Amino acid sequence: MDSSYRIVPYSEAYKDAFRSLNEEWIIKYFKIEEMDRIILQNPKEYILDKGGYIAVALCDDVPVGVCALIPCKYEGYDFELSKMGVSPKAQGKGIGKLLGQHIINQAKRLGANKIFLESNRKLAPAIALYKKLGFSEMTNIASPYARSDIQMELNLNAS
Predict the structure, then answer these.
(1) Using CA atoms, how far apart are residues 107 and 98, in angstroms rounded to an integer?
(2) Cα-atom radius of gyration of the chain, to the nearest Å?
(3) CATH number of the domain that residue 101 is part of
(4) Alpha-carbon span 155 to 134, nearest angstrom
(5) Based on the structure, what is the number of domains in the chain?
(6) What angle do CA 19, 71, 156 make, to 5 degrees?
(7) What is the model's pLDDT at position 1?
(8) What is the pLDDT of residue 3?
(9) In the predicted model, is pLDDT for residue 13 greater than 60?
(10) What range does the record give for the signal peptide (predicted)?
């Protein structure tokens, strides 16, 4: 990992980057869904104001990656790891792993026991990353996303 990369908490200065870094991968592989529009246009209202957290990866102070921790309404889960996006020009440099580890540590700091995520098997590098981070496949949540064909969970208390 290059020392010019660092992770900072979200602020309004990164609102456009949060939206564009996510729209970039969603549009490349899928289509923007209504839930995407709502969250990406209003991250403060839909994530932060509800007790969530957003991490921003910077390279020389330019946002190159984002990831959110969204309070979860599903029983047994405290948060959802969501809206992870890394700029294509920064992929393959370990930024996704850095963001994922940061988000997991933040979930622990917030007292979470279990987190989950939704993805699509088409995103093989993302699925491989989630497995490296300790997530395992599960099925018991009704997804608001048509593109979701895999759900994974991570028990933060497991050693």
Answers:
(1) 14
(2) 14
(3) 3.40.630.30
(4) 8
(5) 1
(6) 110
(7) 46
(8) 55
(9) yes
(10) none
What is the span of the domain harbouring residue 10? Answer: 5-155
Exposure letters 13-47 (e unless 16+ CB within 10 A, then b): ebbebbbebbeebbeeebeeeeebeebbeebeebb
List, for residues 33-73, the tens digit of each pLDDT value. Answer: 998 999 999 999 999 999 999 999 999 999 999 999 999 88
Q: Are 119 and 126 in contact (CB under 8 A)?
A: yes
Q: What is the reported pTM?
A: 0.92
Q: How is residue 134 annotated by DSSP?
A: T
Residue 83's identity, in one-letter code, is K
Cβ atoms within 10 Å, residue 85: 26
pLDDT digits (tens, 9 = 90+) for 108-152: 999 999 999 999 999 999 999 999 999 999 977 777 778 889 999
Distance (Å, whole) CA 84 – CA 123: 12
CA distance 25 to 95: 15
